[in-house]
Amino acid sequence: MAEIRIENLRKEFGAFSAVEDSSFVVRDGEFLALLGPSGCGKTTTLRMIAGLELPTSGKIFLGGEDVTFNRARERDIAFVFQLFALYPHMNVRKNIAFPLLAQGVAKAEIRARVEETAKLLQIDHILDRSVSGLAGGDRQRVALGRAIVRRPKCFLMDEPLGTLDAEFRDLMVRELRELHNRIRATTVYVTHDQLEAMAMADKIAVMNHGIIEQFGTPQEIYNRPATMYVADFIGSPPMNFLRFTGGLQKGARSVIVDGVDISVPEIHLDLAESELALGVRPEDISFSDVSPLRGAVFGSEYHGTNQIVAVEMGKGLVKARVPADQKFRIGETVGLELNYDRLSLFDCKSGRAVPSSRYAEHHHG
Amino acid sequence: MSSTAHSVVEPSVTSKRVAATIVVAYAVITMIPLVWIVLTSFKSPPDSISYPPKIVFQPTLEGYCNLFTTRTRQTPEYIISLGAPTSTCDEITRSRNMVIAGPSNYWPRFQNSLVIAFGSTFLAVSLGTLAAYGFSRFKVPLAEDLLFFILSTRMMPPIAVAIPIYLMYRQLGLSDTALGMILLYTAVNVSLAVWLLKGFIDEIPREYEEAAMIDGYTRMQAFFKVVLPQATTGIAATAIFCLIFAWNEYAFAVLLTSGAAQTAPPFIPTIIGEGGQDWPAVAAGTTIFVVPILVFTILLRKQLLRGITFGAVRK
Fold it and tell me: Pairing relation of β-strands A254-257 and A203-208?
């Protein structure tokens, strides 16, 4: 197992820039999720780590060794493809043994290691079956088996759960995380599904248009989104933005939105008059008759344990997550209370979070 | 009574019957010449030219005997002096006042056909597979133009270049050699092979090779261990097309071969000239000539069908 270090990685396809100047470190044994919409550069980044694409510039280190221009087969990594890429003309056993054959491992040892791996993944009963007849979950496990049997420096996975149905996906998410806890292999996992990333990863890198918007633990990403993009991409429904124009002084503890004074965590920066947005998660909004921040109920979505209430605020809808038993009439005027120490403030022009006491312990470039 | 709810997937019984009738009729029509040839090969020479044609006749192996032997006419006294005939063919030949002088050239010509057709098919498919893989997977400079150029070699009948090829072959000493014919048929077939196989290889996801390369194999190893096994259907279909062309080719064979490397197609008509129009022998030669391609096609008919419809149906 090894640490993965990416330095100023760039990849251009002709005039199109797929990955722009990315740098990050995946520590030994860590599980990193590369999260973003399709076309954001996450798969390209993964393929560069694997050696399936060569970067336009930048460096890749595996376990301290510069492997930027090494061939895929020289990198000692394992890759799980979205469609698994199980060799259709071989049975399960041969599929799993395939990487060991390349290494020239002795026959008896191949047998032992394949069986050990199969046991770990609970697929020892299908070892002699053809891969073409396998169900989605078993194909997934065989693909994982082929990856772990060789004990590589790291695992790279490209949306391996993308084709499974929802129910099965939850099961595989648990299995994957358990497997990771057991073998502690450095893993880079590409997904567009924030729930998968949140549930499995130690660290998440949120990518957009080839840029890493934020790199941090799931908690950091959720609680202190570094950019409006991250705030909007993570969370369902996403963070609400209350846009306003104003200037800020270092040390300020409140902002004025729609003429209402709202307490915020202490601001750590002077800001000239500009477009700003107050970011608030739906669960940090509650209803209060005395609050001066008012709007009209637009509709609600019942979720069983809670409900999402949309409130028309004049500049757009604000969604609040409130207990399911609260009753609202459409059009009813309500007051919104914001949980002030959970608020984020963004500069709309740059899209970046304005440093405040909430963000103090976390400075991300 | 009439139902308006027609199933989208299941054709009606009537349309199925009509379709079946058309298919059977077409099959019968195409089979008639072949049946005619096979029947003629078992007729005696007088039966073969009788008019109206005989449907019922006394079958004989005379055509096959005449195909494989050369014969000389002898006096009845001489034939009686030879004693008992040693084989069926011997007996048939003597009944026509002839004796077997030796084997004919049919079998060597047939062997030439086998060597040249299978040799050129193997070469065309091998080269075609490698080229198709290259075009399918790598950024080949001017790939579109090269592919068009390869296709353009089929835009005129190959025989249009017969004279330059004849002159070149004479200069190079390739006239009437198996090597020369193999190279010629390979050159004609390789363009078909590249285009057909590129279609098949394009359908094989790259992930398989990428997985193999990550698993520790070189691209070459990945090609042989992972791509080739999955391309077998396409390779088989392409091989049949190439083989049929090389096996049946007549014009170049007439022009460029006359002796050592002569194939069966130009040889069979020469039988007519040898002592009268021996149609049963010609028919026998044709019947035997059809057998290998028939066996090959029956063995690979699934692949052949897929080869014809490839691209039209996705799995």
Answer: unpaired
Task: Determine the pLDDT at residue B159.
Answer: 84
Q: Which of B215, B225, B227, B233 to mutate to test the interface with A (most CBs of A within 10 A)?
A: B215
Total tally of structural domains belonging to chain A: 2
Assess whether pLDDT exceeds 60 at residue B310.
no
Nearest-angstrom CA–CA distance, B183 and B123: 8
Contacts for A167 with CB less than 8 Å, ≥ 6 apart:
none
Given this model, what pLDDT does residue A133 score? 84
Helix (H) or strand (E) run with residue B195 in it: helix B178-202
| Domain identity same for A31 and A101 | yes
Contact A73 B214 (CB under 8 A): yes
All residues of chain B having their beta carbon less than 8 Å from the beta carbon of residue A103 are 216
Chain-chain contact of B208 with A85 (C-beta, under 8 angstroms): yes
The single-letter code of the amino acid at B223 is: F
Cβ contact, residue pair B211, A79, below 8 Å:
yes
Is the ipTM reported for this complex over the cut 0.90?
no
Residues A207 and A269 in one domain: no
To the nearest whole angstrom, how far is the Cα of A97 from the nearest Cα of chain B?
10
Same-domain status, A21 and A167: yes
Q: What is the pTM of this model?
A: 0.80
Residue B98: how many other CB atoms lie within 10 Å: 18
Domain stops at, among A225, A253, A274: A225
Alpha-carbon gap, residue A206 to A212, rounded angstroms: 6
Among A196, A225, A254, which residue terminates a domain?
Answer: A225
| pLDDT at residue A80 tops 60 | yes
Residue A357 has pLDDT above 50, yes or no: yes
Which residue range(s) make up the domain with A307? Answer: 229-347
Q: What CATH code is carried by the domain that includes residue A100? A: 3.40.50.300
Q: Is B237 in a helix, a strand, or coil?
A: helix
Rg of chain A on CA atoms, in Å: 24
Eight-state DSSP code of residue B259: S
Domain membership of residue A353 (yes or no) is no
For the cut 90, the answer to whether the pLDDT of residue B87 exceeds it is no
In chain A, which residues touch B (CB < 8 A)? 50-52, 71-73, 75, 77-79, 81-83, 85, 87-89, 98-99, 102-103, 146, 150
- Per-residue pLDDT tens digits for B147-175: 999 888 888 888 888 899 999 999 999 99
To 10 degrees, what angle do helices B279-299 and B232-248 make?
A: 170
Q: Cα B7 to chain center, whole Å?
A: 42
Instruction: Give the model confidence (pLDDT) of B238-280 as tens digits.
Output: 998 899 999 999 999 999 998 889 999 999 988 876 567 889 9
Residues of chain B with CATH 1.10.3720.10: 107-263+288-309
Structure tokens at A205: 């890198």
The verdict on B207 touching A (C-beta cutoff 8 Å) is yes
Choose which CATH entry (3.40.50.300, 1.20.1640.10, 1.10.3720.10, 1.25.40.10) describes domain B107-263+288-309: 1.10.3720.10
Mutation target to probe the B interface, by most B beta carbons within 10 A, among A54, A62, A79 is: A79
Which pLDDT does position B309 carry in this prediction? 55
Which of the residues B139, B214, B219 would you substitute to probe the A interface, choosing the one with the greatest number of A C-beta atoms within 10 Å? B214
